[in-house]
Amino acid sequence: MSHIDDGRLNALLDGELSAAEADEVRKHVATCTDCAKRLDEATRFLTGAADLLGALDLPATARALPPANPAYRVPKTAREVAIDLDGATRQSPAIRPNIVAPPPPPTRRRFDLTTLAWAAMVVLAIGVGYLADEVRHARFGGTSRTAAGATASGALPAASPAAPAARPAGGGPGTGRTLRGGAAGRAPQTVQLTRPAAGATHLAAKSAAQPTGKRISTANAPRRQQQRPAAPANQLAAAPGAIARARDSAAVRRAAEPAPAAPAAERAAAARSEAQLNVTGVTAAQDAAATFRRATLEEAVARLNGAVRLMDGMRFEQVEIGPGALVTGADRSRDLVRLVYFDAAGHRLVLDQQRVTPAANGGPIPPDFGMRPGDTLTSVAPGGEIRVRWIDGTFWLSLSGHLPPAELRGLVDRIR
Amino acid sequence: MAARRAGGAGAGVPRPVGPQGRGPTTDVGELYQLYHDSLVRLLYRRTGDRERAEDLAQDVFVRALETPPINPKPWLFAVALNLARDDGRRAAMQGRKLALLKGESGSLPGPDAAFEQRERAEAVRAALATLGDKDREALLLKAEGFSYDEIAVALGLARGAVGTTLARARRKLVEAFREQGRVSDVAH
To answer: Which of B48, B164, B174 sits opposite A6 (nearest CB)?
Structure first.
């Protein structure tokens, strides 16, 4: 078959080919390195041109400026209007006015004096209480307390891998106290940004690809942990605060191993727990397959306010758009653009992206997830799929695939 | 096509094209609601002057009142592009463009980010100016969400040529912009 001309490649990217024609072009591109290279090039020119034209959007005038509210409406982009006109996505929740919040302050204060003062008071109160307890038990011979305390705290390091196997499905009366003790003792110390998922283990870490990134905030972690059920015992526990990069890959490997060995009942319980927490992980991904719709790259660019992040050196397969609620960590109120790639070995790589609006106070983005610009979150799904999430400027990005964590994080550099 | 090319702001207003009979609305009020913002945006991209873009958009709807279009969407945008083209010629003859650039940069003093944004917009507009009429207009129409069929109707192209036109236009725009030393700003 002769090579595909640039016009057809652009028509493919614009979604202007029939299904049969598109299949034919895709098949050819999959076997022809020259055409694959030109398709990659055409993709870059398409997004580059869309990005440049975005610079010619109408300037803000007094009509568009906010009267009083700091969050104000901006005019829809050209493409949003056009999509509205086409009626193709009128029912889509994605077409709604952009709400632009004022930019965050240049420097973000992690702690203010009031917070520190409260923290000091809490620590002081706990210390006094502990001392009083010690004195009381020393006087009255509280050996039972010591034994219970040893069970709760001493089991911490070793209990992580052992607990799932030891825990009966129904949670017998004899083990209930041990589990509660372990959970209560461990919860405040577990890693931040960790989510109890369906047998999955999540790990928050600094990405090797993001050396200048900020450390993950630990300020709200204890409160978050208290509000949620204790994580499964096989869930990775790491040092509080930011995690050293060196521990990352080893921890992910360690975390991935116990998942298949966990009892079915426990996995089911974890799944129920996840559903209750509304943290949609694997189930959301499965649902997403049914609700994501095919789209053109142009449409994706429009949905992302004039720009899209692409991955170098991978075979581009297709673009999809779906609700952000289907992907863990994404802004649930906005649509999400999904680009599907394949690497040279045939691994499917999914690049999800959304535009995010920085919080007015420099807080987490999105607010329910706790991530801040520069943070990187690596997680492992039960099926072994690794996912890396990060925020780059005003983009929330997620890359997932069946690749080793380090390798997947290495691909982050290819995304521009 | 011939009629459109022969026309412009004067007597040669493009005639309505497309399917006859029942079709999209031809009510000018409704058309205004639907397409005004999009037209102004396209005309602003084309002229770089917001007030001029709004004036030209008004002219488009005046013509729509005079000659109700049957296939309004491509018709409105084709008229708008014709008017912009003729306006550009007149502006070049009158030297209005220089005054406009001077006026815009002088009237919008702002922080560095705003200055860079304006500088980038001017560079993009300069890159856009290096494109041929067809390429530029195809690109602007695509940016307004036009399908290949609609672009073909509006510009009088064969449908099969739209992809090639867009491919060439996109490449030329990006390369022209890069030549201005702004490589890092373009996705590549």
So the answer is: B164
Nearest to B187 among A56, A81, A416 (CB): A416
Residues B101 and B136 in one domain: no
Q: Which domain holds residue A194?
A: 101-416
Best to test chain B binding among A53, A299, A303 (most B CBs inside 10 Å): A53
> Same domain, yes or no, for B133 and B80?
no
* Tens-place pLDDT, residues B38-84: 999 999 888 888 888 888 999 898 888 888 888 888 899 999 999 98
Residues A69 and A187 both lie in one domain = no
pTM score: 0.41
Q: Which of A42, A56, A83 shows the shortest C-beta gap to B124? A: A56
Residue B167 and residue A14: Cβ atoms within 8 Å?
no
Q: A116-149 pLDDT, tens per residue?
A: 888 888 888 888 888 887 777 666 554 444 434 4
Same domain, A321 and A340: yes
- In three-state form (DSSP H/G/I as H, E/B as E, the rest C), the secondary structure along chain A is CCCCCHHHHHHHHCCCCCHHHHHHHHHHHHHCHHHHHHHHHHHHHHHHHHHHHHCCCCCCCCCCCCCCCCCEEECCCHHHHHHHHHCCCCCCCCCCCEEECCCCCCCCCCCCHHHHHHHHHHHHHHHHHHHHHHHHHHHHCCHHHHHHHHHHHHCHHHHHHHHHHHCCCCCCHHHHHHHHHHHHHHHHHCCCCCCCCCCCEEEEECCCCCCCCCCCCCCCHHHHHHHCCCCCCCCCCCCCCCCCHHHHHHHHHHHHCCHHHCCHHHHHHHHHHHHHHCCCCHHHHHHHHHHCEEECHHHHHHHCCCCCCCECCCEEEEEEEEEHHHCCCCCCCCEEEEEEEECCCCCEEEEEEEECCCCCCCCCCCCCCCCCCCCEEEEECCCCCEEEEEEECCEEEEEEECCCHHHHHHHHHHEC
Least Cα separation, residue A371 to chain B (angstroms): 26
Chain B residues lying within 8 Å of A307, measured CB to CB? 187
> Which CATH number covers residue B133?
1.10.10.10
ipTM > 0.85 for the complex: no
Domain boundary among B51, B72, B106: B106
Q: Which domain holds residue B81?
A: 23-106
Name chain B contacts of A7, Cβ cutoff 8 Å: 160-167
